[in-house]
Amino acid sequence: MGGGKTMLEMNKSRRSIRSKSQSQASLIKVKGLEGEDNGTLEKGRRKSENSQSTVQVEIDQSGLQRLLPSSLRHRFADQQLESLYRAYYCRQKNSAVLVLIILSLFFCVTSIILYCIAFTEKKIPPIAILSVCVVINIVMFILLKFRLISDKLFMYTPFIPWILFATEIYVVIGLESEPIVPSLAVGWQCFLAYLSYVMLPLPLRWCMLLSSLSCLVHTIVVIVICILNYPNVYQIGNAVGANIFLFLCANILGIISYFFNDINQRKAFLETKASLNVKIIIEEGSKEQERLLLSVLPKHVADEMVQDMGDVLVADGQFRKIYMSRHENVSILYADIVGFTAISSKCTAGELVKILNELFARFDKLAEKYHQLRIKILGDCYYCISGAPEPRSDHAVLSVHMGLAMVDAISDVRAQTKTDVNMRVGIHTGAVLGGVVGQKQWQFDVLGKDVSLANKMESGGLAGRVHISHSTTKFMHGEFELEPGDGDQREEAIRMAGMKTYLIKSVIKPYPEGTLDEIYVGGMIFDQDDDDNNEQNKEENLNKLLYEAIVEKEATQDIGKRINFITMHYHDTNMEELFDRNRQKFSSVAILGTCVVLVCCFFSYVCIAPKSLFSILTFIIGALLLTVFTVFPFAASSPKRFVGCAVSFSQWLLRKPWLRAGWTISAILVLAACNIVYMFGCDSNISNTFSLPLNSESLNCEYPVYFSYYGILVLIEVTVLVQLGFLAKILILVPLTVVYCVLYAIVLPNLFDRYDIALYGSYNTLATTVSTKYSIVGKAIAISLTLAFYIRHNEVVMRKLFIWKYEADEAKELIQKQREKNEALVYNILPAHVARDFIGTKKRDEELVSQAYDEAGVIFASCPNFNDFYTEDSVNNDGLECLRFLNEIISDYDELLNEARFKNIIKIKTIGSTYMAASGMNLGYSIPKDAPVKERWQHLADLTDFAYALKETLDRINSQSFNSFVLRIGINQGPIIGGVIGAKKPHFDIWGNTVNVSSRMESTGQAGKIQCVEDTMLILKEFGFTFEKRGFVKVKGKGELITYFLTGKDGKNGGSPLPNQPQDDIF
Question: Which residues bind ATP (predicted)?
Answer without folding.
Answer: 336-341, 378-380, 424, 909, 989-991, 996-1000, 1036
